[in-house]
Fold this protein.
Amino acid sequence: MIKGGVYLLYGQETYLIKQFIKNTIDSIQHKDVNICTVNEFSETTISSCLQVPFLADYRLIIVEGELFKNKNEALLKYIEQPADSTILLLVPPSVDGRKALYKKLKKSDRLLEFKKLKGKELIDFIKQRTEKQGAKISKEAILMLIEKTGYEHVENTTLFDITNNIDKLISSNKGDITVEIVDKLVGDTINDNIFLLVDYIVKKEANKAYTHLDGLLLYKENTINLISLILRYFRIIYKIKCLNTQNKSIICKSLGIHPISLKNIHFNLTLDVIDKCINACVEKISGIKDGTIKDTLAIQILLAEILSFI
């Protein structure tokens, strides 16, 4: 259990943030009087923080609203001398590392960043989550689940997507979870659409490529996610070219990817063309993030550029 003080919770993995909050709530005695959730930090919140816990070691105050758009003088003042008997969890929708609030909490080592799980940590999470519900899953099935959900390369995919699919796999299947079952029950992801989009592009089927892109945009797919997946595709091809082999088992082992990632891979592209495509993707993502180009226009221009490179 964490001690009293102020903590800023942030990061891509919202599942782990929610889990941390739940565990903290579970540790508080007499929850009905010692826990409070608010949307902003004010003088009233300070009063709540300074109240003595009722028959417990700590009070818990959770602030879930925006914290970085305004100066938040009240919060900055409270951070200087927080109550030892209150755990204050700040859970804003976004964080700005340039602001005084972030810098003060960083200086006092009260930043709790929740990053996406990777490698063995992610595999172990899926295995343990599955076994906790009385089922077993093979390593190959785990890797396919990670790939089909797009967890490692789709920005807004979280462990919520992983756990929801695990629950679906267990409820729909009485035995062990295998590759075949994952392939059958876990729906096609945005990955499959990107494979098809890039396939049209590389084959220079421009009309089909633009029509397919329009369909993705119509369904409100996140543009940065789309470009990130296109970027990932070309980075995989670049690494394959450097390996100088088309043996899929060697490629998967060397790059640590699932065979499904090699779907519609075009080995005939030159390193020069691949490099141009990678640079164009990086440039568009950067432009969207810093606001110099609108997201829809960015991906439409990207499509035209890649078609001109190939």
Q: What stands out?
A: The first helix runs from residue 14 to 26.
